[in-house]
Amino acid sequence: MTSRTPVNSTRIYDSLGDDIIAGRPANRIDNQSTFFYIGDAKVGALDNELIWRIQKIDISTNPYTITWAESNIEYDKSWVNRGSYTYG
């Protein structure tokens, strides 16, 4: 038996390049009044795993300022530690 791809199907990939047809990437938003933390990770990621990338959006500035935890977009952060990273 051969495998078949349904007609009109679309493959969807997360930011890590993994096929997520059956799921969605883990996403978190934390509103801290004058700024937001936004995190994304692989499907099924736990908040304490070091597989997150986190950005901080400061809405108290004009224009808004967007910075990354530890000044990089690597998936090596923990969502639970988002407040203790340096952003740049």
Describe the model.
The chain has 88 residues and is mainly β. It has a domain of 59 residues. It has a four-stranded antiparallel β-sheet, with no helix packed on it. It starts with 25 loop residues before the first strand and ends in a 20-residue tail after the last strand.
**Strand numbers in spatial order across the main sheet:** 1-2-3-4
Gross morphology is globular
Low-confidence stretches: 1-12, 19-23
Largest sheet: 4 strands, antiparallel
Task: Work out the helicity level.
Answer: under 10%
End-to-end separation in angstroms reads 53 Å
Order of helices and strands: EEEE
Spatial extent as radius of gyration: 16 Å
Write the layout of secondary structure elements.
Blueprint: E1 26-31, E2 35-41, E3 52-58, E4 65-68
Antiparallel strand pairs: 1-2, 2-3, 3-4
